[in-house]
Amino acid sequence: MHAATASFASSAAPAAYAPDLGARAEARYWPAHALDAFLLQMAARGHCISATMMLGDRRYALDQLQHARALPGDTLQSAVRELSDYFEDAEPAVASLHWCHR
Questions:
Q1: Looking at residue 18, what is its pLDDT?
Q2: Whole-angstrom distance, CA of residue 40 vs CA of residue 71
Q3: Which letter does DSSP use for residue 101 in this model?
Q4: pLDDT tens digits for 36-85?
Q5: Environment class of residue 1 by beta-carbon count within 10 Å: exposed (0-12), middle (13-18) or buried (19+)?
Q6: What is the predicted pLDDT for the residue at 25?
Q7: Which of 84, 70, 75 is nearest to 31 (CA)?
Q8: E strand or H helix at 72, and its extent?
Q9: Which of 98, 45, 101 is CA-nearest to residue 68?
């Protein structure tokens, strides 16, 4: 390994780049892995779901989740449960960034 690379790899990130876990420690981000799984599972069943719409329109997201509840599949239902916890939350961390319709 090159000396400069070794030095960079072993150095810790400066304190200025440490995440601020203070007041926003309770905030949570949308579950990307569950959304990806949901989109793939719905596509496998012939349903085209827009990730952008899921994150941009809460009503659309809730409608898609409601539709998916009637479909078979343990993997799909697991993703539905996880996404429901997020999208049905009254005030998720990114609501003001993603949801234009409340």
A1: 45
A2: 14
A3: -
A4: 999 999 999 999 999 999 999 999 999 999 999 999 999 999 999 999 98
A5: exposed
A6: 42
A7: 84
A8: none
A9: 45
